[in-house]
Write a structure and sequence with these properties.
By secondary structure, the protein is an alpha+beta fold. Helix content is about 20%, strand content about 40%. The chain contains 4 helices and 12 strands; from the N terminus they run ββαβββαβαββββββα. The protein has a 6-stranded antiparallel β-barrel. It has a 6-stranded mixed β-sheet with strand order 10-9-8-7-12-11, with no helix packed on it.
Length: about 200
């Protein structure tokens, strides 16, 4: 199974280093020296990682055969792809690979359907599930313990307890109940104002 593990950003310095946007939870395993990665576009690769280091919170890589800034800049926006055994699991039972989470059904604790995970976005502060709703819209769910309470790979579902306002349905419920109250108040006022027949 092939998985995108990083996207190459801009060149760093003049000796062929590039910044990378990491898309794996195990960069030390997938993006270590000696790793050979396929690329998208395919004609750019395969690329072999010569060295890597962290600079100001960003991972910098140097590839074999890329020695100057222009060579590094030519790699910009290239996706790096690793071959991963689909049966392989992370060492920590609380961790998951992206391919295990993609397509999981997302449900509330009471079983209400929220949608389906279509993408995992790895941000510096946390990971986000990009969830496609049944109506085609998308909602972003932070992959944190307080919100994602259970990942059940056998049942192919993620159970969430979102805070108010995270999912638009909860907002819609609040809005609709307010609307109903407003309508009933308006109706009551109109009844009071309605001209009464002559006695």
């Amino acid at each position: 199974m092939q998985l995108v593990v990083a996207r190459i950003g801009r060149a760093h310095g003049i000796k062929g280093e590039v910044t990378v946007e990491v898309r794996t939870d195990e960069p030390e395993l997938r993006l270590g020296p000696g790793a050979v990665l396929a690329t998208d576009p395919a004609a750019t690769g395969p690329l072999t990682i010569e060295s890597g280091r962290v600079h100001s919170g960003r991972l910098l890589l140097r590839f074999e055969g890329v020695r100057d800034r222009s060579g590094a800049e030519a790699l910009r926006n290239t996706l790096l792809i690793a071959d991963v055994d689909p049966e392989e699991l992370p060492e920590d039972p609380e961790e998951f690979y992206d391919h295990q989470l993609i397509d999981l059904d997302v449900v509330l604790a009471d079983g209400t359907e929220v949608g389906r995970i279509t993408e995992i976005s790895h941000l510096p502060s946390q990971d986000l599930f990009i969830v496609e709703r049944p109506d085609g819209s998308e909602v972003m769910i932070p992959f944190v313990e307080e919100i994602v309470t259970e990942i059940d790979l056998e049942e192919q579902r993620a159970v969430i307890t979102p805070p108010p306002g995270l999912i638009d349905e909860s907002e819609a419920v609040v809005v609709s109940s307010r609307d109903e109250e407003a309508k009933s108040e308006e109706a009551a006022e109109k009844t009071d104002e309605a001209p009464k027949g002559d006695a």
